[in-house]
Amino acid sequence: MFFYLSKFLWFIVVPGNLLVLGIVIGVALLWSPWNKFAKRFLSFIALIVLFVTIVPAGPLIVSSLEDRFPKPQIKDTTVTGIIVLGGIISPGLSISRDELSFGTATERLVAFAELAKRHPDAKLVFTGGSGDPFYPELSEARLVRPFLESMGIDLERVTFEEKSRNTVENAQFTLDIMKPKPDEHWVLITSAFHMPRAVGCFRKVGWNAIPYPVDYGTMSDNERPALHFNFTRGLSYLNAAIHETLGLVAYYLTGKTDALFPAPD
Fold first, then answer.
1. Which in 13, 128, 182, 251 has the greatest CB count within 10 A?
2. Predicted pLDDT of residue 103
3. HSE on the CB side for 198, CA within 13 Å?
4. Could you report the average pLDDT of every consecutive run of 10 residues in the chain (265 residues)?
5. At 26, phi and psi to the nearest 5?
C-alpha cells in the first residue's frame, strides 16, 4: 500500500504538474465571475515561475543532500560485499525498443563494475525489481544482466534481488538474502542525493553499510550554484529536491529510516 500511495501522491505534488494545474485553474477563472481573483492568482503563478527560473533553490537543496555523505577511501579496507541500488533502467522503454534503456544514474553501474574489479573477492549484489506500477513484472535485476556482463563482471559473482520496488525494500530484501555479519564491510552504491535515505533504510534494518555516493548533479561546497535564467534546469532540480525531501520525511514518519536526515557516523 505504501508503494502505490507514494507513487500517487508524488504524481499530485510534482512541481511541474502543480504549475500546469494552477495555470489551467487561473485561465478558467478568467471566464468566471472571479476574474479579478484569477488575475491575482495567475500573477502569483508567474512569480513562482520567475523564482524557479532565477533562484537556484532546487540546486541548493540537492547540493545539501549530495554533500551529506563524502565518498570514502576504501583502498585498504577488506570489502566483504558491494551493493548497488536499482532505479537506473526504464523497464517499459527497454522492452518496447528491445534494448536496455537507462533513465538516469548509470554512474551507479560504472562504480559497481569498477569496485568489483578492485575487490575481486567481494560479493556483489544488484537490488532492484520494478519501481513502475504499470510494469510490475519487469524486474531491473533481470534486464541489467547483459549490461553487467558486457562491463566485464562475472555474473556468477552477482546476487540479483528482483522483488524490491523502493529503497526500504532494497534494504530489507537484500538483508534477508545476504544475512550480513556485524564485523563485515559492505559498500553501498547509489546516487549522492539519494544516499541519506538509502543509508537510513539500511541502518533501520540493522545494516551499517559504507556509503559510496556517485552520480553527482551539483558542484562541490566551494562552487555553490549562483543565480541563473533557466526554467527547465530550475524545475528539474526542484523536482529532484522536493521528491527526495518528501521521501525523507515520509520514510521517517512511517518508521522506515532511523533519522529524518541521516548523517555520517
1. 128
2. 78
3. 27
4. 66 87 96 94 97 94 95 84 94 86 90 96 94 79 93 96 95 98 96 98 97 92 73 94 95 95 93
5. -60, -45
Chain position carrying cell 540546486: 59
- β-partners of residue 247 are none
Does 119 lie in the same domain as 6? no
Percent of the chain surpassing pLDDT 90 = 76
Cα–Cα dist 125/64, whole Å: 28
Give the Cα separation of 91 and 105 in Å (integer). Answer: 14
- Say yes or no: 182 and 208 in one domain: yes
CATH of the domain at 99: 3.40.50.620
Identify the helix (H) or strand (E) that includes residue 168: helix 167-178
Residue 55 cell numbers, joined:
533562484
Answer yes or no: is 224 within a domain. no
Which stretches of the chain are assigned E, i.e. beta strand?
A: 81-85, 123-127, 158-161, 186-191, 210-214
**Cβ 158 vs Cβ 124: under 8 Å:** yes
Place of cell 551507479: 108
234 and 208 in one domain?
no
